[in-house]
Write a structure and sequence with these properties.
By secondary structure, this protein is α/β, with parallel strands linked by helices. It has 2 domains: about 150 residues, NAD(P)-binding Rossmann-like Domain (Rossmann fold); about 260 residues, homospermidine synthase like (Dihydrodipicolinate Reductase, domain 2, 2-Layer Sandwich). The protein has 14 helices and 25 strands. It is globular and about 60 Å long.
Amino acid sequence: MLNTKHAAFHGRLVIVGFGSIGQGVLPLLLRHLVIEPAQITIITAESRGRDVASEYGIAFDQTALTRDNYHAKLDPLIRPGDFLLNLSVDVSSTALIELCQEKGALYLDTCIEPWPGGYTDPSLPPAARSNYALRESALALRQRFPKGSTAVLTHGANPGLVSHFVKQALIDLSAASGSVGSVLQTRKDWARLAQRLGIKVIHIAERDTQVAKQPKEPGEFVNTWSIDGFVSEGSQPAELGWGAHERHFPSDGRRHDFGSGAAIYLMRPGAATRVRSWTPLEGPYHGFLITHGESISIADFLSVVEHGEGRYRPTCHYVYHPCDDAVLSLHEFAGKNWQLQQRKRLMMDEIKTGMDELGVLLMGAPSGIYWYGSRLTIEEARRVAPHNNATSLQVTAAVLGGIVWALEHPQAGIVEPEDLDFARVLEVARPYLGEIVGVSGDWTPLEGRGRLFPEDLDHEDPWQFKNVRVV
């Protein structure tokens, strides 16, 4: 499986951005695609990664793409049938998608990225800095390009891979309940299944336990993946897909007056918002409610709407506990009023132990909770792929799976992870995900609440679906 050629590609591949994910996915692309190094060009704002590009004989162009130069820079490099892989920070995804649609080129990114300031500019209203708004802007391109070349939105580990985990988890729960046999082809089929199973809440539950030989120092931000990317999304408003069953609307919660209405946001950054969750190995933990595209797209995908009225939707959000040094880094970052530390260090070769436990936690079914996902240790990550740690490999495996699917379906138009064949993507990614497990349990977020101080959890504030739109 580690040497399987999944697809042949005869065009040009342009990789925009070459941080930890770009460097980690490059050897996987060369291993699993029929492609030559001469077909690949890297365009990136920084010099880091030049040695990795040189190792594989890949053209390396150190140029920062901006509003003013991106079109002139990319126009001569992209022809019909080529592929643009966007792994950048501060380069607008919608601008690149539009260019690829006009050119008839394929496209994939791991998040919907804005131009600089789009995440953090305080002059912009919080709603405009949300992933909800970014998603709506990308999906709006479907109206201009209804039958265009394939553009896969937000297909990393999460967002991306976790949407496929949700589908597999729903199938597992259906089998356990004895209701196997229903055909799951459309969005409505999946939403009805989730409703029938009684799923009320879906957490993207992740615990990163990787530890480096060198601990974090004061004035340094340390992380196991893109520091700029993590800081940007952690500075956005906390966002969550908002379920039909919810009785308590957050005091600082806000609804959007446009789009699908599938999510709300809070008037505080995700990096300052703690929530409870559970993974099989970690058990109960406090994580950060970091905004992510899957919180919105999964909730939207699983919505049941009849005659314009919302009947069902699960609450969905990310609960991220990064590595311990990253938690310390966030604590220091917040203490400096969200001013980023001067020094940044990406943990890679210095990691000595640990794993990334990444999965989806489905709650509400009568049978209890169910977590399905990947347990990938640093040792396994190093065994199966160069230039990766456990966190980056979960992302790069999903990027590989998304690219293979796009090459097999080159005229699918603008799609989200929920639109892809989950079984095919998991087939491609699985060799790089370590141990894939499904674990049942009886934990709830209320377990242990009020042990030190009493809490009033009975107040009701009913809320109905509003602004429902079926995409």
